Amino acid sequence: MFRWLVLIIIVGMVGCNQTNQELVKDYHNDGMQLFKMGRYSDAQESFQAAQQLQPADPGIYYNLGQTYDYLKRPYDAEKCYKECIVRSPNHAGARHALTVLLMNQNRQDEAVKGIEDWLAKNPNCAAAYAEDGWIWKTAGDMPRAQSRYQQALSLDPSDTRTLVELAFVYEKLNRPDRSLVLYQRALEINPHQLAVKKDLERLRSSGTSLPHPD
Fold first, then answer.
1. What own/partner pairs with CB < 8 Å and gap ≥ 24 does 38-43 have?
2. Average pLDDT over residues 95-107
3. Which tens digit of pLDDT belongs to each residue from 147-180?
4. What is the DSSP letter of 206?
5. C-alpha 16 chain-centroid distance
6. CB 47, CB 23: distance < 8 Å
7. Confidence class of residue 214 from pLDDT cuts 50, 70 and 90?
8. What value does the mean pLDDT take over residues 93-109?
9. Contacts of residue 28, Cβ cutoff 8 Å, sequence gap at least 6
10. Which CB contacts under 8 angstroms, 24+ apart, belong to 148-157?
11. Domains of the chain, CATH where assigned
12. Which of 25, 101, 74, 28 minimizes the C-alpha distance to 36?
């Protein structure tokens, strides 16, 4: 509470010398740093201060939702993710966070319907197909997940998250050779993925080779 009062006082003191946009950036950066440090309550206050100044910014709602998630406040997190999606319907981070939250609460029907509605309104959105793939992968339906991830990649071939997710699915379908190709492609796009490097090395050390032409 004390920190929140200090933030309000600071807004009043520097408001004449700093634009709202600059203040929003300062509070947002402060919140991000505090979040990385694990100081989630303090991060929440910084994001809320930014939100007071710029209530239409979807990114602030998303970051505030993430903070509530870590504070074990799922009701507040859900509200923030939904507010973010209202303002930015294709916000992949908020869509995924909301889907995870719903699935963790055994609300799979709501999660599925949310993604179906997203796909109906944005049929050319790669992230929507990828999110649907994630739902079916989590539910254990690997063939259906594979189909959705492939649709996502047909729209956005360079999305590393989808490449890695599809690689995982192929491993579950006993096609590690195809997984090898996808891990390689993901690392070509973004070499700074330590977990993917480990997966690639694991497959290579097990003797997996590139697939032969069908």
1. 40/67, 40/70, 40/71, 41/71, 42/3, 43/67
2. 97
3. 999 999 999 999 999 999 999 999 999 999 999 9
4. T
5. 36
6. no
7. low
8. 96
9. 46, 47, 50, 59, 60, 63
10. 152/126, 152/127, 152/128, 153/126, 155/124, 155/125, 155/126, 155/129, 156/126, 156/127
11. 1-88 (1.25.40.10)
12. 28
State how far the Cα of 43 lies from the Cα of 63, in Å rounded to an integer.
Answer: 9
Residues in contact with 24: Cβ distance below 8 Å, sequence separation at least 6, in sequence order: 50, 53, 54, 57, 60
Rounded to whole angstroms, the Cα distance separating 26 from 12 reads 15
| pLDDT tens digits, 20-69 | 888 889 999 999 999 999 999 999 999 999 999 999 999 999 999 999 99
Joined together, the tokens standing for residue 213 give 């032409």
Nearest to 142 by CA among 155, 131, 130, 133: 133
The token pair that represents 86 in the structure block: 């209202």
